[in-house]
C-alpha cells in the first residue's frame, strides 16, 4: 500500500489569488485562534502549520532595537536631502538588513513601523526628528520613496511591509494621550490627510498606526477617518496597528469609554486590526475581545475583517510561499554599499545656511580648532540601531586635515563635587574584566546601561574630576574621565555605568539646585536628591547631600585658548536626542542652550573666523549676526563626522535644503496645541513674518542660473519647463523648487505652496532642462460650502527658484475652474464645522462613532463665521441642533443679534442633542452669517425655514 498524501489546502496553493487563499485560511481558523491574531504577538497555529507573527519592527532610519545595524541620518535629515532617489535607496538598504537580521533572529519583524509622516507643523514638537518636513508635498514625496524602498520591487512579494505613523494631526508630546487636535475640514484635507493620502495612493504602504492623541474630541484609535478616508484610497487591504498602550488609554487616561470591552470593540469596529498593548501578554486584549463578544458589542464578522487584513500582509510578505519568496535568502548587511550609502546620505543632508565672505570651504592647510558639546560625539536617538561604525566631527576632521592641524576643546566645565564632610565624589575604576567594549573601542551602551554589578560612586579625600555637560533648562549630565556617564540603576545607586544618556526614562540626567551654601544634586529620572551613604551614593527619599561645586577648569576658558591659536574655529553645537526634546517631551524654546551660546561667544571673541555647525534634531533660533558661516545637519548616523568634514573641506558642495521654517523667535510660534495652520498663519505656507531661514533654503559652493521658464496647460496638467545652469567653478547639486500661488483667492490660501522639486548634479558650466508636470488637483482647495476639493478659476503665479523665498523665475497662468457659488442655506443648512472663520472655538465629537460639533474653548464663548450664505427669498425661522447648555446667537455680518436660541439646562450628556427653534427675520439675498456660542454648548447644525 502507498501512504496517503493529504491534499494541499487552498491557502497553500500559490496558483490561487491571495484573496481566495485568505478566504480558505480564514475559514479553517477557530474563533479562539482568530481572536489570538488580534494582539501584536499572534501565536502560531500549529495544526495548520501557521507560524507565530509579530506586528511591528522599528526602522525609521535603519533597523532599530535589534542590535548593530547600519545607521542612516535621522528622518528630518533625510527630508533635508530633498532627494527621493537617495531616500528610496536608503529604504531598500534598510529593508535588506531587516531580512538579513530576520534570517538569524526571528524576533526581527517584517512589518516595519515606518516612516513617520506627521507634518513638522511646530518646531518645538519633541519628535521633530522623526518627520520629514512641514510641507505635505515634500513629506509625501520622501515618504513614498522610503516606502517603495522598504517594499521592494517584486510585483507580488514585499521585502518588508511599511506602516505609516502616526494617524493623525499629531504634533505634541505634552499631554499627548489626552489632548485633542482641533482640525477644521480645510486643514484636515489640505494639510494633515494629504501627506498620508499621497503616500498610500503611491502603492507601497501596508498600513498605518493611529496616534495617541484625539482629533476633534475623538481618540484616533476610534477615528471614523480610517473608514471614511484611509481605506478608500487603495484597493489593498491596509493593516491598522495600534500604538503601544493606546487601546488601554481609551479607558484609563482618556476616559472615553467606561469599560475596556466597549473600548476594544469600538476600536476594532473603527478599523484597528492589531492591538499593541501589555507587551507580549496577549491575555488582556483577547479577554476583552471575548467579553465584547459576550456582551454583543462585536460579531465574529468584525473579527474576521481584522484578521483578513493581517493575513493579507502576511501573504504579501511571502510567509506562505517560502520557497518562492525572492527575499528569503537576502544577506545584505553592513555591506560596503550600505556604508557608502550612509556616507552619501549624511553628506546630502548637510544644509549650508550662511557663508559670508566665502569662509567655507576651508583651505587644505587650515589650522582648525574644533570645540563644543557635539564636537566629539556621534549621538543616537530613541529609534536608532546600535552603531557598527561611528565617526564624530572631530574624528572626521582629523582624518581629513591631519591630527596635527586640528585642536579640540569640548567646552565643558571640569568640576569636583565636595561634600559637607569635606570629602569629594570618587568614581571607582573599572577592572579590565568588568569593562565592556564595543565596536572601535567604544563602551557598549547596551551592556553598560543599568548595570548593578559595577561599584557605586563613593567619596574620598581627592575625588574624581567630572565633566559637567549643561544641556540647558538646568538639565545636565556628568561624565567620568574614562567616558562613562553617571547613571542611576533600579537599586538607586549612582554608578558610572552608561556610554550615553538614553532609555525610555533617561537615568543619566541631573540638576544642581542651589540650597543653603551649596547645591542639591537631584536625579531627574526619580525626582530624588542624591545622598552619601556608607554603601555609596544613592538617591534619597528625604534630604540629600549638600555639595559644593569646585570648578577645576572653565569650558569657556578652554575654548578661548584653542580658538585663539587657530586659523578657523568650528563650534559644533546642538542637542542630545534623549534630552530636552524627544518622545514624551516637547521643547520649551527655540533658543540654543545658554551654555552653548556662551561657548559660541567665547570662540567668536577669540577668533572672528568662527563657523557654527548645528547638529540637531530640530531648528534653533540662533543669533548668527557675528558668525560668518553656519551649517545645520540632523544627527547623521554612523557617517556624520566624515560627512561634515568632507563638506567643510569642499570635497562635496553642500546641497541640503531646510525641510521646515526656521523661526527667528519664540514669539513667532503658535501655541503648541493650535493645529489650525490656516487661521494661525503657520508654516511657510501661511507665515507672514520674517523667518530666520525660510523653507527650502540652503546655499552651495557653486552658483546657479535659472532661465527660460515656459508653462502650458494641456489635458488637465500644467507643464512647466526651465533650465538650470552651474555658473560656479565646482561640481555641485542644486535643488530646483516649483511653487504656486493663487493671486486673488476668495478664501485664505497659501502665500506659496510647493508643487514639485528636483535635485540635480551639475558640473561647472553645465546646463540642464528641468520639466515638471503638475496636475490640476495641485491647485485645489477644500471648499467647505460644497464639501469637496475645488479648483478656483483665475490667475495663479508659477514661481521657480532655489527656496520658498529665493524665487528666480515667475509666470502667471489663467486656470479654468469652478467659480464659487453662495451657500444654499435654505436648502442645506449649515454644519457648524464648515465655518469659514472662527475665534475661541474648538471642534468636538458629535458622537463617539462619527460627526463633528463646535464648542467654545473652555465652555465660555466663541464665534463662527459663514460667508456668502444665500437666503433666497428670506428666512422666517432658525433651528439649531445642539447639546449641553448655553445660547446660540445669530447675526448677519457685523450687524446686531437677530435671534437668541437658548438650550435648557439639564442633566443631559454631551452626546444628547436636541433642537431649539425661534422665529427670525432674515432678508432675501446673500449674507455673511455669524453665530455666537455662549456657554458650554456643542453646536452641530443650523437650519433655516421660511
Automatic annotation (TrEMBL):
CDD domains: beta-trefoil_FSCN_BglX-like, CBM6_xylanase-like. Keywords: Hydrolase, Signal. InterPro entries: Actin-crosslinking, BXL, CBM6, Cellulose-bd_IV, Fn3-like, Galactose-bd-like_sf, GH, Glyco_hydro_3_C. GO terms for molecular function: hydrolase activity. Residues 828-945 form the CBM6 domain. The keyword Protease does not apply. Pfam families: CBM_6, Fn3-like, Glyco_hydro_3, Glyco_hydro_3_C. It comes from the Bacteria. Signal peptide: none annotated. Belongs to the glycosyl hydrolase 3 family. This is Glycoside hydrolase family 3 C-terminal domain-containing protein.
